[in-house]
Specification:
The protein is mainly alpha-helical. The chain is 52% helix and 0% strand. The protein has helices at 2-6, 11-23, 27-42, 58-67. Helix 2 (11-23) crosses helix 3 (27-42). The radius of gyration is 16 Å and the shape is elongated.
Length: 84
């Protein structure tokens, strides 16, 4: 999954990975959750840790989650897409 998220898979491996993710009841939701987490973390200002005396980004993460309550839960409950 890290290679997929980083965009370093070859076209052939990317196709095989996409097929697996579409069919696997565990990997599909996990990948969607990781993508959502990456989007959320990237939205945190880069100076978030600098503005906290402890040097932690936790307050910024909590603030983000309060502002975006629909993103609090992982997407594990969603059914994977099936190819027809």
């Amino acid at each position: 999954m890290p290679d997929s998220l980083d965009g370093t898979l070859t076209p052939r491996r990317r196709a095989r990975f996409a097929q697996h993710v579409d069919e696997c009841p565990e990997c599909g939701p996990m990948l969607r959750g990781l993508i959502g987490l990456r989007v959320a973390l990237r939205s945190i200002p880069t100076d978030a840790a600098d503005s906290n005396p402890d040097g932690s980004i936790v307050p910024a993460v909590l603030e983000y989650l309060c502002a975006h309550p629909s993103e609090r839960r992982p997407m594990a409950g969603r059914a994977p897409r099936r190819r027809g």
